[in-house]
Amino acid sequence: MGLQQRVMEKIAALKNLMKHDGFDGLVITNNIDQFYILGFYFYPAEAVFLLQEGGLICFTRQLYVETLKEKYPFMQVIGQDKQMAAAAVKEAAHLGLKRVGFDASKENYMAGSLFKAAGFAEADSYASLLRQVKDEHEVACLRDSNRIAFETYEYIKPLLKTGVSEFEVAAEMEKFMRVKGASATSFLTIIAFGENTANPHHETSHRKLKDNEAVLMDFGCIYNGYCSDITRSWWHGDQEPEEYTKIWHITDKARQAGSAAEKPGVPAQQVDATARGIITAAGYGEYFTHRLGHGVGLEIHEEPCNDQTTKAVLKKGNVITVEPGIYLPGKYGVRLEDTTVVTETGADILTRK
User: Fold this and answer.
1) Which CATH superfamily is domain 3-130 in?
2) pTM to 2 decimals?
3) Rounded Cα gap, residues 306 and 321, in angstroms
4) Distance CA 38, CA 41 (A)
5) What is the tens place of the pLDDT at every residue in 139-190?
6) Helix 242-260 and helix 268-281: axis angle, to 10°?
7) CB 220 within 8 A of CB 299
8) Given this structure, which CATH class describes domain 136-349?
9) d(CA 111, CA 83)
């Protein structure tokens, strides 16, 4: 499927949601949602979209106009270096639109106030809703992004030597991902040694690796706009404690069970409960201190999530992480994470070659 067809399908899907809720217009200002629709990256506050029955209108900086007109001939592009939101309000009035919606959950105060003053109404996060289910093109991008992350893990593990710092390892990994084609990391790379592995979101530091201690790395990259996320844990040295071996295998069992529980129609809460139940039954429930997983796509944290309170029900095309962990304060921790896509037959693990 070509770019133009993908864009037109997303526009059609947005229009259907608008019409269902009685809107004849929709303004979109979030740059990630804009990338989802067009596949073109704007920085924040560089564009405002107005979607209506006649098509998509893009108000953006003059420097983008010619490129966008050439790439998207079906879209009206209006050069507007400042006051793009006001220009969209004026155009909506000119078109005679009766009920225009905006995503208040993603709007800044100034634009939101302007839209409300113009009589625009708060709408659901339509783009976020559509983004939960990935199409074949998106899954392919996510597969490539997660493959790069997995290859980075394979590359870096044999290079770890006693005396190297967490920062040095992170830098080498990030360089490797960029050489492979990644545009950026999908979040701040987490490299943890020793007691730092017991902190689920440890901030990478100058801490150096010692003989015989735990290693945990949680990282990912952005490739073609889509994120990856992987965590691996292991023992550095030949004197691995029995307890570390025990919690590693419990965590791995929970990871496998969580992935196996993923199927269309299954409540995401049930996926969390399946993995969490294994850790709890082994006596380490209090040391699993976070949700089992989260959605991944254009952003590193999206819906749906595998957690204990969500009402989400899994659908084919959801891309979610499974990342159980056991963290023993002051000692060490283990987290094992894969990014998966829900298929008709179950979970397909993306964090592999």
Assistant:
1) Creatinase/prolidase N-terminal domain (3.40.350.10)
2) 0.95
3) 8
4) 8
5) 999 999 999 999 999 999 999 999 999 999 999 999 999 999 999 999 999 9
6) 160
7) no
8) alpha beta
9) 9
